[in-house]
Design brief:
Two copies of one chain form a homodimer. Chain A has 350 residues and is an alpha+beta fold. Chain A is built from nine helices and 14 strands. In chain A, strand 13 and strand 14 form a beta hairpin. The two termini of chain A are 30 Å apart.
């Protein structure tokens, strides 16, 4: 398939088969056709063409990182992305948060009988484009079809394998008093983009998902010798929940300045309208980096050069090892404790 | 948790929370409790306790195998197993079919709001028991909850990583004229067990799923120096579909003797009652091995010693490289062509 000249039309014409049938999940002839004509066409990976149930890979003699996520976002298409973009970037980002170079992706589709084949093709194209951008290869997969009403259009699981090329122990247990906490951009866009599409809301400006791959920025920081102590992408539960997790796992207090946490005015307005706190709204292209204070300027420079449309900020620092609290200094000067999300704020945003 | 003295009661008492809520998929406090009290308790893996989104692993300098499958079986509990047994053994078996030693498993849960927590605990226990039997470790996972009616109780994706310790190229392209085709036991039990449970049918004898891990038999054949040309587990589409795949990928004709293909009388009876051909019914613990003729006795001896409750058979051999047909000699002597399953025979049997 020639992708240089753009994506072709859906390889299964509507006259042939417009909607997914149960037989597409049978293991038989129709499933083979679906895999060959949609997934192999879009992903173009030699391993998939081998039609074997697993891929044999040679990542070298390094440590590997291994991660999985299922995606059940509703709706499957939203401003700034779709379930396919999420399924690739989300897993790429989990590998990046281990400090790993993303290498191989698996993908498991659970499809509701009746889904338009055209929609599946659109999602598969997004996955290939996202995988190419992130430098990861989709090497193995699985397809199941369930009866109408037994799932919601399309769920995708992706698992990722990456190689760890550094010797750092990146995680909450490595943070230290005085570390700066850097965020790579404004928060809350992904959750609001999905929510507004789902509820048919329109705000004054278009709010697009921030969905993006984060591996390159992380790998460049590591290559530059920055002493990265902890990384965490901010998905379900938002910035607040991620920081509470890190604080509770490490035992350190984290001190934030509310005024330095970037939230776009339109996102803040939408959050006020919906009764949400942007600190708890999901993101899909945002992460926090914990580094020693004298590494923070260089880290921010690298992060900014990898995502020119956003700007990173120091949002706080690591305090003493006692209490395991996240404390935020509000714009008017009061300090309050940030809690983990309790209950459900926005279901099915990823 | 002490497993020597058997499994404890469900760690979340009914008085605390009887059914899954949307909030269990929120990324917040309730999801953390669910993961800690059900999955970490059952799986007991150090990497999961680290509450990180991915696991960093050290498989050594070998080639790795990587595979994924989603499980949507209906019902989630059936004679001889449940969706958890399937999710572990199915992925272990896909690794084994690459000739790989199963090492690490990921698991992604998509849960319908309202599922009994007790049922989730039962499935998690099955997964741990199956993982222990197969010698694989569950190292990373993900949990999503969707609204009532948006999935069917529980779907599980598992992805697996294994190490390849041999230098053989195992796959359809390695088969040769004269290779014997060995099956490790009788066919059709898994599909019939699930179908009879789903439809509330009862047959004269209990037909239990054949669900079982296959890695040990495969690894022992490789360790013994048997020249394994191709391996394939017989899941959706059954024996017929797997052999047609191998024939079409390799270009060789495969010649089978119907009388040597083991089918239990009760399974044959159930198939007749349901209008099914056992050649197309799914299995979850059956595989075919292609080996040179002079290796076949030793291969069968090893396979039999690893699964004492079944017996392997030579069901046919590889013919000439032309036509890419699967030909079966019937009990009365007539030869017919075996086709791939077209359409859907038994939906959601895995």
């Amino acid at each position: 398939m020639k992708r240089d000249s753009g994506w072709p039309e859906c390889p299964i014409p509507k006259s042939d088969c417009e909607n997914i049938l149960l037989a597409h999940g049978s293991g038989g002839r129709m499933m083979h056709q679906l895999i060959d004509r949609i997934f192999v066409e879009a992903f173009g990976t030699a391993e998939l063409r081998e039609a074997h149930d697993g891929a044999v890979l040679q990542p070298g003699s390094k440590r590997i990182a291994f991660t999985t996520d299922s995606y059940v976002v509703d709706p499957i298409f939203f401003p700034g992305g779709d379930i396919g973009t999420l399924a690739v970037n989300g897993t790429v980002n989990d590998l990046a948060m281990c400090g790993a170079r993303p290498m191989y992706l698996s993908t498991g589709f659970i499809i509701e009988e009746g889904l338009a084949v055209e929609d599946l093709w659109r999602v598969a194209k997004s996955m290939r484009d996202s995988a190419d951008s992130a430098g990861i290869r989709i090497v193995t997969g699985d397809t199941k079809v369930v009866e109408r009403g037994k799932c919601d259009k399309l769920f995708i699981n992706s698992a990722g394998v990456g190689v760890v090329e550094h010797d750092l122990d990146i995680g909450p247990s490595s943070i230290r008093t005085g570390d700066k906490i850097i965020i790579n951009g404004d928060i809350g866009r992904h959750g609001i983009a999905v929510m507004s599409e789902r509820e048919g809301l329109s705000f004054q400006s278009d709010i697009e998902s921030d969905c993006a791959p984060l591996a390159k920025a992380v790998l460049r920081m590591l290559d530059a010798g920055i002493e990265v102590h902890c990384l965490r992408d901010l998905t379900r539960g938002g910035l607040a929940t991620s920081l509470v997790e890190i604080s509770q796992t490490s035992g350190y207090n984290l001190r934030l300045n509310e005024s330095s946490i970037p939230v776009r005015d339109d996102v803040r307005g939408a959050c006020e309208f919906l009764g949400l706190d942007p600190m708890y709204v999901a993101n899909e292209g945002r992460f926090v980096t914990f580094v020693p204070g004298d590494n923070s300027d260089e880290a921010m420079e690298i992060i900014n050069s990898e995502s020119p449309d956003t700007s990173s900020s120091v949002i706080g620092s690591v305090g003493e090892k006692s209490g395991a609290l996240v404390l935020i200094q509000s714009i008017i000067g009061a300090e309050r404790i940030v809690e983990m999300l309790s209950g459900e704020q926005l279901p099915r945003i990823c």
